[in-house]
Amino acid sequence: MARKPQTGIPGLGYAPAGRKLDVDVLPFSDIRRRSSAAKVQATHRYDFHLFLLVIEGSPTQMVDFEPVPCAPGTLLVLRPGQVHSFGASLDWEGWLVMFRGEFLPVGSDQHAEVLPAHVLDQLPDHQLLDASRHRMTADTISEMATDTQAEAADLDLLHAALRYQLCGLILRLQLSSATQMGEARPFGPARLRFEKFRALLEANYSGWHQIGPYAHALGCTQKSLNRATQEAAGRTAKDCIARRLALEAKRLLAHTDRPIYLIAEGLGFDEATNFAKFFRRQVGQSPAEFRTAHRP
Fold first, then answer.
1. Are strands 49-56 and 74-78 parallel, antiparallel or unpaired?
2. Domains in the chain and their CATH numbers?
3. What is the pTM of this model?
4. Are 237 and 218 in contact (CB under 8 A)?
5. Phi, psi for 93 (deg, rounded to 5)
6. What percent of the chain shows pLDDT beyond 90?
């Protein structure tokens, strides 16, 4: 069966050499050697998942236009659609693991909540691993990298090995997160409501700009929804909606050639002028100014 290879990181000219594998594992130094500093430091928008584990150095990564300071042991989880830059400093080393969500198994005799595809969605965007977990995670990724380069007469068997290594890595990372953040216990009612709201927001932000539809879909009052978002995220539901809309607008302005009026239309604004006012209020720049500042 023909396989869809990883695209690699857009703009860097990187693509897997040789076999078409469903997961790519490489050190950051490999990216650094292949491309100019300007291309490495540019922002990239991914259509796959990427784990970034810092081994040496303390780089500041840029994720969705926000700085994320990192130290050895930091693990970043980047998801499809996010915008990322390796930052100004290239004097660091780490592992990159790139894969598509469909690579993970979706059927099992386990409960759906512990399937790797579900656990992947629950992983924090970044966490600092302690020394033992850092070493264990680095060793697992290093073993995966070795396997991607190994001679294998049976590629299906190699893919199966990589798939189960990746599943084990995801589950261990969630165990580490739950232990370090004290989230092994179940969420309270407010946090559960916020998680449901966040899932609804991700699916409907371009059409539902007001709190009402979300509260109705969740079967609660707007006041209860605001209380849940304040407790879980420290902001109102309206602010959460506005921030998600602004983030998608920034992604589209920086990484597509789509005209601004079509971006406005796609995000549910009836007039481009209303979108421009909203964007300036949220970001402090006009859409055109932001696009000029962030184009590669």
1. antiparallel
2. 23-181 (2.60.120.280), 189-294 (1.10.10.60)
3. 0.82
4. no
5. -135, 150
6. 61
Asked if 75 contacts 173 with a C-beta cutoff of 8 angstroms, the reply is: yes
- DSSP class of residue 187? P
Q: Residues for the chain: how many in total? A: 296
Q: Is 238 exposed, middle or buried (0-12, 13-18, 19+ CB in 10 A)?
A: middle
For the record, the structure tokens of 202 come out as 């991700």
Which residues are CB-neighbours of 239 under 8 A, at least 6 positions away?
229
DSSP symbol at 210? S
Tell me phi and psi for residue 205, to 5 degrees: -60, -30
Segment (H or E) for 75: strand 74-78
Q: Which amino acid, residue 22? A: D
Question: Six-digit token pair at 87?
Answer: 């930052």
Question: pLDDT tens digit string along 180-205?
Answer: 655 545 567 888 899 899 999 999 99
Distances (CA, A) of 273 to 103, 259, 269, 281, 293: 42, 13, 9, 12, 20
Structure tokens at 156: 């299906």
Q: Could you give the CA distance from residue 202 to residue 74 in angstroms, rounded to a whole number? A: 26
pLDDT at 138 over 70: yes
